[in-house]
Amino acid sequence: MNGYSIICELRERGVKPIWLLDNNRSLASFSRRIDGFLRIGNDPRSLLEALRKLSSNYRKLVVYPTNDVHLEDLYAIHDEISAYCFLPYNRDNLLSALDKKTQYDYCDKLNVPHPCSIELNTPEDIPRLAALGHPIIIRPRKRDDLRSDVFRNLLLTSVADIERHATHLTQLLERGVSLLASEVIPGDDANIHAYVAYRSASGKILDEWIGRKLNQFPDGFGVFSSASNEAPEIVRELGRRLVDGMDLHGIVQPEFKFDPRDGKFKLMEINLRSMMWHRLGNRTGVFLQHAQWMDAQGQPVERTNRQCTRRIHLVYLKHECGNLLSRRGYFRQFTRNLFGGDQRSFVVLDYSDPGPMVRDLLSYFRYMAGALLLRWKRRASDTPR
């Protein structure tokens, strides 16, 4: 989805040719908007070979990573590709900036609120979890789940949960996986807001937008389901403070959650690349992928200064249907997300580019079956014993 959204924006802005590099035949590989597809392995050397192959036909490549593994792989081969690749990150601080603990340390320096958190580096740190209260969310300090069997996040709601998962946590820590445990900010998915910007290597924010998620799938710690361009200006202020204060380059997304207990927006995490819902920015007239393209050419970027007054909803219908089946009482929210606002936009549902749409529709049955199973599990967990 990330790659397909980037492809759509670039092609709409007249950029070509566009090549997709991926580990498998993902949704974007079926698009008629790409000029070619190269399958690569899940390692830096395979990526290097693919980029070298492309560089034999093109003077310069502008690279758009779509997950943290891509960033780490590009960093690993940086010296071998920098002569012919425009790389959208700050090499001096990329690896440290991917670390959630580092992000929270910068929050303290820059006066940006964040959840109460503790590091888990050794098994001896596990008893410290009690100091955070409940519920607690535990995440790898980096996205280790993309390359190994480490969870993306683990929600603990009681002392019994800690005891139940203590053995697994111990095994991970003994393997050298560093974890970050944080208090869970109360509130639903609609409390999650984001600042999204493109910042050049010269330290200038070339364009930006703000928005908020309306829902995620499969739950409050899932991925984009629907979103809106409505967000308070404090999100822009805090986002700029982090992006400039950490000297981040490329497309950057600090994500905040509003805490009703003290009325503050608190940083959840910073993503250093495009996310699933960045098409929302396009719908408000902001084109960050194209800003990167123009920056790579050394051309000026016309910054979007106008304020979009229309309330726009961006919807991923598959995830919304998944929520409808897996969450009790979700119908009212479902209709509000799909039909609320002044304008609606559905990702993937594009009759001018049927390949990704058909590919996505073919996966609906599996997704809906998974959503029904999730609902059954939730109902079973609510049943008194």
> Roughly what is the average pLDDT, rounded to an integer?
91
Order of strands across the widest beta sheet? Answer: 13-12-9-10-11-14-15
CATH class of the largest domain: Alpha Beta
Number of strands: 15
- Under CATH, the homologous superfamily of the largest domain reads ATP-grasp fold, B domain
Number of discrete helical segments: 14
Largest sheet: 7 strands, mixed
Tally of distinct domains: 3
Alpha carbon gap, first and last residue: 41 Å
Describe the global form: globular
Strand fraction equals: 15-25%
Using the CA coordinates, give the radius of gyration: 21 Å
State the secondary-structure class: alpha+beta
Listing every helix as H and every strand as E from the N terminus to the C terminus, the arrangement reads HEEHEHHEHHEEEHEEEEHEEHHEHHEHH
Indicate the low-confidence ranges by residue numbers: none
Any guess at the CATH architecture of the largest domain? 2-Layer Sandwich
CATH topology of the largest domain: D-amino Acid Aminotransferase, Chain A, domain 1
Helix content: 25-40%
Describe what this molecule looks like in 3D:
This protein has 385 residues and is α+β, with helices and mostly antiparallel strands. The protein has three domains: 2-96; 116-183, ATP-grasp fold, A domain (Dna Ligase, domain 1, 2-Layer Sandwich), CATH 3.30.1490.20; 189-377, ATP-grasp fold, B domain (D-amino Acid Aminotransferase, Chain A, domain 1, 2-Layer Sandwich). It is built from 14 helices and 15 strands. The chain has helices at 2-12, 44-55, 68-76, 78-81, 94-97, 100-110, 159-174, 233-245, 279-283, 288-296, 317-326, 331-339, 354-362, 364-382; strands spanning 19-22, 36-39, 61-62, 85-86, 117-120, 136-140, 154-156, 179-183, 192-199, 205-217, 223-228, 250-259, 264-271, 312-315, 343-346. The strands form four sheets. A seven-stranded mixed beta sheet has the order 13-12-9-10-11-14-15. It has a four-stranded antiparallel beta sheet with strand order 5-8-6-7, covered by helices on one side. β12 (250-259) and β13 form a beta hairpin. The longest helix is centred in the last third of the chain and has 19 residues, at 364-382. The model has no long low-confidence stretch (mean pLDDT 91).
